[in-house]
Design a protein that fits this description.
It is a single chain. The protein is of the alpha+beta class and 349 residues long. The protein contains 11 helices and 15 strands. A 5-stranded mixed sheet has the order 13-12-11-14-15, covered by helices on one side. The chain has a 4-stranded mixed sheet with strand order 4-1-7-8. Strands 3-2-5-6 form a 4-stranded antiparallel sheet.
Length: 349
């Protein structure tokens, strides 16, 4: 029995060791004021906690050992408030080296070297973009350069923090938030920065964002999924048999379907009906010949409608071949022109 208990204790200790791993963090501060000392702070639930003092030797070297379970964002304050702070995301079981230069004339700092962390390397690239924008013309380009950097590194967790660079202009960069969130949410479902992106994006569907899944039954009880149409241009059409404007718009929807179907255009019709017979009769009477008709027959509480925030019908969402939203609520000539442009653009490539 004692041997069994010892084995259990050892197994538990081993598992704990797998969850909490050491990180060695070292580096050098250069060009800082004489006698400069600083601290290392940890960001935890949007609050900063003191971890330890970074003890520097005469040459500005420091080394500290940290223990954490997940990638963790740390903060190093600069000598004055105007220079801000240096953000460093450190991973468990890693050896990270960072050299930081103080630029008092610019009231900024520069990361001159980093090793052992793709998260720190991404922050260095971000830091370089800001520092290299020395003229008004270069400063204008900063948002585009940062956006490009984050799109190219969306699989790196640090991007979930850096994307908040655009927080004050969120609507214009919602698709970037979405791309970063989608790239990270499966691997880091509990990360606070990824969760922040989730909260910002909740209920918001803008052009450039991935169209959320709709999975519902057709009139025969067969499950149909929006994602099954990936690779084609899709119009998600929210309608109902009892909706007069929807029924009047249906001839136009039929017309654009026939015009563009052979080019790779499909329609995914989501009915907000309550009655199966009324729904299927309207499909037949209006000649809605495409196969993708779905409904859960719950009216305004339709799961598909709730996913897309539908509060009135008719409502449409145009989705490209990659599953990204192109536009919302296009009807009549506007829908036809948008499809013309989409398919013409593909031909010109």
């Amino acid at each position: 029995m004692k041997k069994f208990l010892v084995l259990v204790v050892l197994c538990v200790a081993a598992l704990c060791g797998l969850h909490a791993q050491r990180c060695t963090f070292s580096g050098t501060f250069s060009d800082f004021p004489e006698g400069f000392q600083t601290v290392l702070l940890k960001v935890n639930n949007n609050k900063m906690e003191l971890v330890d003092t970074l003890k520097l030797d005469k040459k500005g070297h420091f080394k500290i050992t940290l223990t954490h379970k997940e990638p963790t964002l740390y903060v190093i304050p600069m000598p004055d408030r105007e220079s801000g702070v240096c953000h460093l995301m450190l991973e468990p079981d890693s050896k990270v080296t960072v050299d930081i230069q103080y630029l008092p004339a610019m009231k900024m700092f520069r990361i001159t070297n980093c090793k052992g962390s793709e998260n720190v390397a991404l922050y260095k690239s971000f830091n370089d973009i800001l520092l290299n924008a020395n003229t008004p013309e270069e400063q204008v380009k900063v948002p585009d350069l940062v956006e490009q950097l984050l799109r190219e590194n969306k699989n790196t967790l640090m991007s979930a923090f850096l994307v908040t660079f655009f927080e004050q202009n969120f609507d214009s960069y919602a698709s970037l938030y979405s791309d970063v969130r989608d790239a990270l949410v499966t691997k880091y479902p509990n990360d606070s920065f990824v969760n922040h992106l989730n909260e910002r994006l909740r209920g918001l569907l803008l052009p450039g964002m991935m169209a959320p899944e709709i999975e519902m039954s057709d009139p025969d009880g067969v499950t149909r999924r929006l994602s099954d149409l990936r690779g084609q241009v899709v119009l998600i059409d929210f309608w109902a048999s009892w909706c007069g404007p929807c029924r009047r718009e249906n001839p136009n929807v039929v017309r654009v379907y026939k015009k563009f179907h052979d080019k790779g255009f499909e329609i995914f019709s989501v009915s907000l009906d309550n009655t199966r017979s009324a729904w299927t009769a309207a499909i037949k009477k209006d000649g809605l010949v495409w196969p993708n008709h779905v409904s859960d027959l719950t009216g305004w509480t339709s799961s598909g409608g709730k996913t897309y925030g539908i509060t009135s019908v008719p409502a449409t969402v145009l989705v490209d071949r990659e599953g990204k939203i192109v536009a919302r609520n296009l009807r009549g000539g506007d829908l036809e022109r948008a499809l013309d442009q989409l398919f013409q653009g593909e031909t010109e490539k």
